[in-house]
Amino acid sequence: ELPPSEFMQVADSTWLVLSVVSNGREPPGCQATGVTKIARSVIAPLAEHHVSVLMLSTYQTDFILVRERDLPVVIHTLAGEFDIYKEESGECVPVTCDDVSNGFLKPKPAASPTLHPVQSPQTRFCVLTVAPDTLPAIATMLIDVLFYSHSPPWDAATSSQDLDSITFFSFSLIEGYISIVMDAETQKRFPSDLLLTSSTGELWRMVRIGGQPLGFDECGIVAQIAEPLAAADISAYYISTFNFDHALVPEEGIAEVIQLLQQRQESSR
């Protein structure tokens, strides 16, 4: 419904959404959540098969977007580990490898993925949700934050290599569930009784992946972050955007996260 515009850039590919639902077989005592929870079973295998993904964590669950043309490879890669369903007219219908075998090509051995630089600004973030029926009470504030406040010039937003702070606000509405990521200072502008977060009220720090816009063709970017954090049992809330990828980790674990990622960077040289 959006009119064509010289100001709107659209990626070439059409993307499909994968939602990973736990079936209760997760090892006892595993506390990792977010992207690290599916690092070994979904993200790493797709990277090994040259599948580029966009990752979107929400307050309720996680979604993986894959390009429509990669669907046969995705199905063949994940069918051994997961029961896979597609939604048709609101019903979940089982999918088998035979359903998407046409055009499937066995992938070539994957080259080692590029490890992109990571930056960790000092900004502290909150991960929140809001009940849909209370959304009108904060709508004006949301519009102000989304479209009018914190809007630095394009070159200032993308050119800094040493980020002391970062401007980041994410609002997602998926099947009626709302997820919001905002910095702790912006949260103070909203009515505290309407924004819901975990009982601990924990704050998060960000790792931004990429020194320049990443594009959509490269694979293994999410795995670069997810695999070492999963090995260390560190939770991460991951958001891919048009230009960069962003991983939020609990504030108290940021030093360990940076050390892990630096060690991986150095070992790849």
Which characteristics define this entry?
269 residues, VC0802-like, 12 strands, CASTOR1_ACT-like, phosphoprotein, 2 domains, 7-stranded antiparallel β-sheet, single chain, 3-stranded antiparallel β-sheet, alpha+beta, globular, Alpha-Beta Plaits, 25% helix, 7 helices, 22% strand
Q: Number of domains in the coordinates?
A: 2
Large-scale geometry: globular
Low-confidence stretches: 24-31, 156-161
H/I helix tally = 7
The H-level CATH homologous superfamily of the largest domain, spelled out, is: VC0802-like
- Text of the CATH class of the largest domain: Alpha Beta
Radius of gyration: 19 Å
CATH architecture of the largest domain: 2-Layer Sandwich
Q: Tell me the major beta sheet.
A: 7 strands, antiparallel
Quote the average pLDDT.
Answer: 84
Task: Using the coordinates shown, work out and report the CATH topology of the largest domain.
Answer: VC0802-like
Strand segment count: 12
The amount of helix comes to 10-25%
Q: What is the percentage of strand-forming residues?
A: 15-25%
Q: Can you describe what's shown?
A:
With 269 residues, the chain is of the alpha+beta class. The protein has two domains: 15-94, Alpha-Beta Plaits (2-Layer Sandwich); 118-268, VC0802-like (2-Layer Sandwich). It contains seven helices and twelve strands. The strands form three sheets. Strands 6, 7, 8, 9, 10, 11 and 12 form a seven-stranded antiparallel beta sheet that branches. Strands 1-3-2 form a three-stranded antiparallel beta sheet, covered by helices on one side. Strand 11 (237-240) and strand 12 form a beta hairpin. Helix 1 (39-48) packs across helix 2 and helix 1 packs antiparallel against helix 6. The protein is globular. The model is unreliable at 24-31 and 156-161 (pLDDT under 50).
